[in-house]
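Help! Submission page says 'invalid entity' but I think these are all valid:
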Amino acid sequence: MQAEDICIENLRDCFEGAVPSAIATCSPDGTPNITYISQVQYVDRQHVALTFQFFNKTRQNILANPMAMLTVADPFTGSRHRLKVRYLHTETSGPLFESMKAKLAGIASHTGMADVFRLQGADLYRVESVDSFISQVPSARRNKLSFLPKLREVIAQLNTCTDLNELFDTALTLLNDKFAISHAMLLKLDEAGQCLFTMASRGYETSGIGSEIPVGHGVIGVAARERTPIRISHMTSDYTYGKAVRESAEALGLQHHLETAIPMPGLPESRSQMAVPILAGDSLYGVLYVESPQDLYFSYDDEDALMLMAYQLGWTASGLTCMEAVADTPALSLAERVMLPEGQRLQVRYFMADHSVFLNDDYLIKGVAGAIFWRLVSLYQQQQRNEFTNRELRLDASLNLPDLVDNLEARLVLLQRRLEEREASVRIVKTGRGRFHLQVNQLLDLHCQDK
Amino acid sequence: MSDSADPLISVELASFLEREVAIDAASRGADLCPSSARSMVAVVDADYRHVTVWIDREKSRPFVTDVLASGEIAVVFCLPESERSVQLKGRRVEQVETTQADIVRAERAAARFVDGVAKLGHGRQFAEAYMAFQPQHLVGIRFEVTAIFEQTPGPNAGKKY
């Protein structure tokens, strides 16, 4: 292939980093140089980018003589391709730089090499010709069929969801059914934009709903901060995601701000990971995270598909949130309260310092969701109310919490799920758009502590 | 290089170069455009000054032309299990005849490499295709080693050996 006919789109599997690539350069005095590199970034049909971390011989050479020969291999078939490339320029900001930096930071964060891997620039190269040596080995890549029909079904089904609960569950079910991704979690950005909390998960021993990750840490946190997808296809070391996050947060003195009582879900030996930002216009809604115990499980095509799915998720979630917020709320009829038998009462303890709630001796939740729960049970006890609207909570000055506008609905879903998961005697049951019922099956004793 | 100088290759390094390592070679044309080739196996001469790498010439025609014309070669060796990497620079390049013994050596080296990367989790089919070559196309490129550089990722990468 020459010049204008060049298209390296079908070589994208070669840029996964699973097989080191070799780059040959030549100094002005005619001395060749060759070295192995781990990261070659696919940019578009005719361009690739390499990381510039150190001022090594390869870099000296390409600044003086821009021609290089890049050899890449398909990690499934063993096919090899030699790309004659020309160095164009180095980018130190912008989407390409941020994407490569985020990927490098994501890898570094998990390998404890954050101080070693620091991207100085993304070196952009134009591909001028390709020589291929194709093997007869069939590719073991899954999902080789077109993603478009699956995506069409996924987006159509997400579009029919009528509330956030349904949306999150449908998204995780579709990931499993359509893309064979069985380990996934959905995280929502918090009110302050500082951490992400788990709203829903699938494929783990414990759901981890309510667990938190600081923005900027680990694959999930970096994908959120940079608003770019991060895909790591070949993990060589065992690790526990929650442990890595916790250690990272502790090093920065952030652990007190994190939800620490609920462990992060995660595979004990994750070998492929991908985090994609869920965006709605300029706003970051959250992050969709998927992982697999197999190497090279997620491809560039998966990344494309999940990015499109995440856009739909972001827009649908934002739309549903707005509809809940402005929903007409007809005067509430006080549902008749069921007379509860005397007996052992449920002890509800609320700690104002961090808004944490305990049911008897069991931890339930803290933060915004904890404050909401306390408000609801207080109104239930004092005013004998069990019907509520999202709108009244949003306007409730007594909650005295930071800007809840975007997150109230998400926090209510979180609270609802935590109550269900704990099989608590108090449940939240949605009764209509922007409305819900507090179902209490045991007499309550409320205790509030200042500290 | 005068014969009186100590050889650059140590016994330990020679042993490493002949292990189940990945080997890629580079040269360049008169226009200083680089060319490269995959090598199946390397052999260090008894004088520890010369190295021969065997490549499939049908998959590496530009490289063979360039290296024989320019006399300039660079070869990188990397052991996948440890990522230890070394680069040799060489001159006074010559093509050597391939014997049946060389073919057997190349086949054994390829098989050892396949076993090594399979242990690291790569598919055996992938590895076999990656190392495939046609015995009748095997050609030896012998050169005198003029410099050796450490290339293992880390603070010493790029330093002279």
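Support: the input was valid. A stray whitespace character was the problem, and the output above is from the cleaned input. The longest strand of chain B covers residues 84-96.
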